[in-house]
Amino acid sequence: MKEYVKITTENSIGTIEFFHPQSNSLPGHILAELANTITSAGKDENIKVIILKSAGERAFCAGASFDELLAIDTTENGKKFFSGFANVINAARKCPKFIIGRVQGKAVGGGVGMASATDYCFANKFASTKLSELAIGIGPFVVGPAVERKLGTSAFSAMTINATKWFDASWAREKGLYTEVFDSVDEMDIEIEKLATTLSTSNPEAMEGLKKVMWQGTEHWDTLLMERAVSSGKLVLSDFTRNAISKFKNK
């Protein structure tokens, strides 16, 4: 199947779904489509609440595309690629509607950042998480603020430092990344539908006001995340990082 980002709207619920054949990894054009789709959904008067999900069963999101990371050849191209993650997080942050996350499988790097940028995140028990960036010579600089906001500094530091460790769904729920964790996808989807339906009939102005309160203190992220994108864009050009990415890709 070819990669895609699509949105469907039913009963005032907008469901944004993305897919990439490489474990739902995130090349630049997918990131751009996600940011634009979230922004458009936020402006659509027919949508009262948003569900963010990926296709497939085993992986929610594998994070950055290794092929695209290796193709970066200038600091400007590096900034452009990593700013894609910044744009998705900022689009979710500024969206006036609540975003419900649906994490049905493993989340890595940018995938953890996306889950962190949702307002209420459901997961199943197989939805382990990992911030693997340091293991390939960079760091979770761009997604870091969103992840730290949800997990706290201690848990974010643990994931960042122990970059090869999978942190299971129970740990992620205890730390605040996931709000609820289920034994099966079917159980999770039933509860997602219940919450989305309830929110679709709630006061839009009240929800928008609450979202602003919940994200208070992040107004500087437009600048901060772009600064972080520049840092990552420089690091990805180093020999250490390029060799590390190549080793991971060839495993």
Question: Can you walk me through this structure?
Answer:
It is a single chain. The protein has eleven helices and eleven strands. The protein is of the alpha/beta class. The chain has a single domain, classed as Alpha-Beta Complex (2-enoyl-CoA Hydratase, Chain A, domain 1). The strands form three sheets. The chain has a six-stranded mixed β-sheet, sandwiched between helices. A three-stranded parallel β-sheet has the order 5-8-10. Strands 3-6 form a two-stranded parallel ribbon. Helix 5 crosses helix 6 (153-161). The longest helix has 20 residues, at 75-94. It is globular, with a radius of gyration of 17 Å.
Quick take:
It contains 11 helices and 11 strands. It is an alpha/beta fold.
Termini Cα gap: 23 Å
Report the C-alpha radius of gyration, rounded.
17 Å
Pairing-aware structural class of the strands and helices?
alpha/beta
Number of helices: 11
Shape: globular
Give a quick account of the main beta sheet: strands, pairing sense, barrel closure: 6 strands, mixed
Domain count, please report it. Answer: 1
Identify the strand order in the major beta sheet.
1-2-4-7-9-11
SSE order, as H and E? EEEHEEEHHEEHEEHHHEHHHH
CATH architecture: Alpha-Beta Complex
The first-level CATH class is given as Alpha Beta
The CATH homology group name: 2-enoyl-CoA Hydratase, Chain A, domain 1
What layout of secondary structure does this protein have?
Blueprint (H helix, E strand, L loop, with lengths): L3 E7 L2 E7 L5 E2 L1 H16 L5 E6 L4 E3 L1 E2 L1 H6 L3 H20 L4 E5 L2 E3 L1 H7 L3 E5 L4 E2 L13 H8 L1 H9 L7 H7 L4 E3 L2 H16 L3 H11 L6 H15 L3 H11 L2
Parallel strand pairs: 2-4, 3-6, 4-7, 5-8, 7-9, 8-10, 9-11
Antiparallel strand pairs: 1-2
Helix pairs in contact: 1-3, 3-10, 4-5, 5-6
